[in-house]
Q: What sequence folds into this?
């Protein structure tokens, strides 16, 4: 192990070089905090947008809203940009703000331990290095570990297996018999992108999603020029998009007349694109809009109706060496299986052991479901800050709007620790419990908690993921670091 006496203690250690980690570094830098290190387990930046480069990968939030307000991009090529362009924007952030000097690539954190005598976090890594920091920002992201479904025989399949977040670009799909398992956000982008290449495409659906039309247009040159010459014009568009998405909360988060209006729009979109009554019936959701993630696509339904594409709604019994066997006894044979089955979301655990005050383990405390104060701090873990922590998930607006609020809060808290020369800033247990009682009470009245199963909920139905309100409300709660809610730990 590295000698504690010779290893420098940095002000801030950031774990992850995706949007959250890089955004945190930029804002810390802008506030004069330059003493930091970013640990990234991969060989390049990008996080989920580095990993999700499958055919058709794109964002379902408009580009001008899915970017940082403190680093606007006037040159987005489309209303909804693809994954490659978003990854390019992330690389641009690294270059624009000279962030590469902070990043240690190929460094996978295996544990965090709070040294309460010194007031320092110790981070151990897979390669044997140890890093020390006064404060730590957890920016590894909730959508970072691909999740395969729990289907019997999944290891028996002898053909090619591809997860949407681990796409093999060297595998040629031309002329292949391909099965897609899943009908979530990645599947409805993959299916239209590959249906014209493969010989036969079979889509296995467990639950039909609500799908809304996607108004995606190429950005005209005059608009890019206007954004470059008049940044206020781009800012005005961003605000308009923000307010439009805020209004969607009334239909998505809570059961209201707008929910019925949104459902009518979804059914109109389905009826307009799918003329076959039986197929339309199979694709009609049987749960309230908002209970699961609402998807946007204008080419998914047409793709399902191509002559070489078939939708299967029978439950999967098992996977065997040749393909997929459904419960009615039919074996569907494939050359390739694509798993569009999302991620293992840590809504009831941590990505690696985190040891706090008096040896307490965050993983043990979160076994029944994760909880935190304002989604960002946990009592007993001083100077540890979460991005996309418990109950910070957006259901209707840009994730980066929420992330900016978290980052600004973190910067204020780090500045408080350094300016007051504190050993630690530890949220009070009472403040955390009070905050979460209010959050869970509000969640009980949302569409997410109406009984349908989704990745938002733990196995026993606890919602540790979503924020039950407007993005404006979330930003308001993050505006100030209320010191009375914290224990200010002085140096002895």
A:
């Amino acid at each position: 192990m590295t000698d504690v006496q010779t290893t420098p203690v940095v002000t801030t250690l950031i774990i992850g070089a995706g949007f959250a980690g890089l955004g945190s570094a930029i804002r810390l830098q802008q506030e004069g905090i330059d003493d930091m290190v970013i640990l990234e387990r991969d060989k390049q930046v990008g996080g989920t947008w580095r990993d999700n480069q499958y055919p058709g990968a794109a964002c379902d939030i408009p580009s001008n809203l899915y970017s940082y307000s403190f680093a606007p991009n006037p040159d987005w090529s489309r209303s909804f940009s693809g994954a490659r362009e978003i990854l390019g924007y992330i690389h641009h952030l690294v270059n624009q703000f000279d962030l590469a000097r902070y990043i240690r690539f190929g460094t996978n954190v295996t544990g965090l331990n709070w040294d309460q005598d010194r007031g320092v976090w110790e981070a151990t890594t897979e390669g044997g290095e140890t890093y020390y920091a006064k404060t730590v920002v957890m920016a590894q992201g909730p959508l970072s570990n691909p999740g395969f479904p729990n289907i019997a025989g999944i290891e028996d399949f002898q053909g090619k297996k591809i997860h949407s977040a681990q796409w093999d670009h060297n595998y040629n799909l031309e002329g292949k018999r391909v099965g897609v398992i899943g009908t979530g956000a990645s599947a409805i982008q993959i299916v239209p992108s590959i249906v014209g290449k493969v010989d036969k495409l079979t889509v296995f659906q467990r639950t039909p999603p609500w799908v809304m039309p996607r108004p995606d247009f190429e950005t005209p040159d005059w608009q890019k020029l206007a954004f470059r010459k008049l940044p206020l014009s781009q800012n005005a568009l961003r605000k308009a998009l923000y307010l439009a998405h805020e209004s969607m909360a009334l239909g998505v988060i809570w059961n209201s007349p707008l929910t019925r209006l949104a459902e009518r729009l979804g059914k109109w979109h389905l009826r307009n694109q799918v003329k076959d009554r039986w197929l339309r019936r199979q694709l009609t959701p049987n749960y309230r809009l908002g209970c699961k993630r609402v998807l946007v696509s204008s080419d998914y339904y047409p793709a399902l109706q191509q002559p070489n594409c078939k939708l299967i709604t029978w439950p999967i019994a098992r996977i065997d060496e040749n393909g997929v066997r459904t419960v009615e006894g039919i074996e569907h044979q494939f050359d390739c299986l694509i798993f569009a089955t999302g991620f293992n979301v840590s809504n009831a655990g941590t990505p690696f052991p985190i040891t706090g005050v008096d040896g307490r383990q965050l993983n043990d405390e979160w076994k029944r479901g994760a909880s935190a104060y304002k989604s960002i701090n946990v009592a007993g873990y001083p100077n540890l800050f979460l991005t996309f922590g418990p109950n910070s998930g957006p259901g209707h607006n840009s994730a980066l709007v929420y992330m900016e609020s978290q980052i600004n809060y973190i910067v204020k808290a780090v500045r408080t620790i350094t300016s007051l020369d504190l050993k630690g800033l530890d949220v009070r247990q009472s403040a955390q419990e009070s905050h979460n009682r209010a959050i869970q009470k509000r969640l009980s009245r949302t569409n997410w908690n109406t009984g349908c199963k989704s990745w938002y909920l733990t196995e026993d139905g606890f919602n540790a993921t979503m924020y039950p309100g407007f993005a404006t409300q979330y930003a308001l709660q993050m505006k100030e670091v209320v010191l009375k809610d914290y224990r200010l730990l002085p140096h002895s």
User: Anything to note?
Assistant: The radius of gyration is 23 Å. DSSP finds 13 helices and 20 strands in the chain.
